Every structure is written in C-alpha cells, then in structure tokens.
Amino acid sequence: MNGRLDGCLIVSCCDDSTDGLVKEIVDSPSVSPVDVSEGVKAFPWAVETKYYTATVYLHTTSASVVDYDDSAENIHGLIVLFNPNQKDTLEQADKWIDKCRCDVVLLVCGRCPSAAEPQGLSRQQVLEWCVERSCELIETQPNEEDDEEDATGVRRIVEALHAHPWPQLEMKGEVPGPSRAGNQHSRLSSGDSGEASTDLKLFSEAMATDGDDVSFEELFAKFKDMKVQADKLSGEERKKFAEKVAIQFWRAFGGEEDEVCGLSSEDEAEK
C-alpha cells in the first residue's frame, strides 16, 4: 500500500455530502475508508483505464480550511462542492484552492442558474471565476440542451481524474520495479545533474522526431516522464518542450498538420 495515500481531496462548502460523491465516483454503495488523521478519511478507489491501473485515495475531511493539515503533500487533486446561489460558498472554495494548489481542481454543483439569484452567481459568472483560478466547473444536473457527446456530472469527474498522471499508477504491460521517472529523481537527488541533463536532451529530441507519428498509447505511457522532465526546465525551455509534446499529441489524435506547423517553425528552421 502507498504509505502516503496519494489521491484527491473532496470538500464541501455547502450542504452537499462529500461521502455521497465518493460513493458515486467509486461506483459502490459501500466503501470502507482508511483513517488518515483526526477528522480525515481516505476512501480507496481502484482505478483501471485502458492504459494504467492505480489505487487512488479520495480524501474527505471535517476540518475547516484553516485547520486542515496539507503537509503530507499527497493531495494532487481537489474537488470542491459549492452552491451557486450562495456567494459565500465560492469564497470558501477560493480558500481551499489557494491552500491546496493542486494540479486538478474541479468545482462541482448541481446546476448553475442562467441568471444570478440575489445572493448568488450566474453560470457565466461562475465560469469566469473558474477561468481566473484555472479550475473546471462540473454540473451534476446539466441542462438537457448541453452537448450529449461531452461527459457531464460524475462521469466527467471520473474522466478528469483518470487523465491525471498519478504518482502511484502502473502502466499496463510494464515490468514491475522502479519507474524511469523515479530513477531520474534519484539521479538528481544524488547530484548527477549532468547525466539527467543528457537524458532530458535525448528525451526532448525523441519527442520531436522528424514528422514520425507516435501513437497515443506511446505518448500516454511517457506522460509521467514528460512531467518530470518539464519540471527540470527553465521557463523558455519548458515552453519549447511543451510545444513539442503538444504537437505529438495533436498528431496522435489525427489533427491536421497545418494547424501546428507554426509551433514547430523554430525546429524546422534548424533542420
């Protein structure tokens, strides 16, 4: 078992139950939690996608945002339940977002009204609020005219969590053992920055091949490594690296080449 219980924190700033949402995500009427600390529980969620398996822990807490202890650094996602008809619940959500600073942040409610109530916010206002804080609004009771092809509600929550590269995930088909990302972290911590730098250069070049297509499966399998590599780069280097990765994903999805030709103009000029 992962001693840190890496996972996602679910908090409620309104009357909605976090335990109810946990059961919907896990898709089980009964799931036994692990006691993490006083007032904090972690529900194990066995995740299995086409590409990986992982045990992700859905944390809930009765502590206030001020009293919640996030020192374990095992919370990578945050789901905040709020009421769009009560502005103060968004103010509380803002405090949770600021404290946890997670990679995945989902703001969840039943349905946002098209027009704001006296003490609330309209859907447009909530969307603007989310854009400013780099989080996603998910409505569990969307309007009927919403695009049926897009995942909504709990299905969208699950989809968003599946897309995150959890540190404890095991890629399907991989031989168990230390991950490549873990090995790279070890080399850096031991001071072998030269070798890590060489690996980074080779990896970057591999992701920017001369137009060779890379399958989505191959890209997803490398996603953890990509994130580790990007964290070691400076601002401009990270931007260039992100462009190369974005181009490969675009090609893997079958996107038109002329849509991304501008991003790789610098690379083309060097050839």
From TrEMBL:
InterPro entries: Alpha/Gamma-adaptin-bd_p34 (IPR019341). Residues 181-196 have a biased composition (Polar residues). Gene3D superfamilies: 3.40.50.11960. Pfam families: Adaptin_binding. Signal peptide: none annotated. It comes from the Eukaryota. Residues 167-196 are annotated as: Disordered. This is Putative alpha-and gamma-adaptin binding protein.
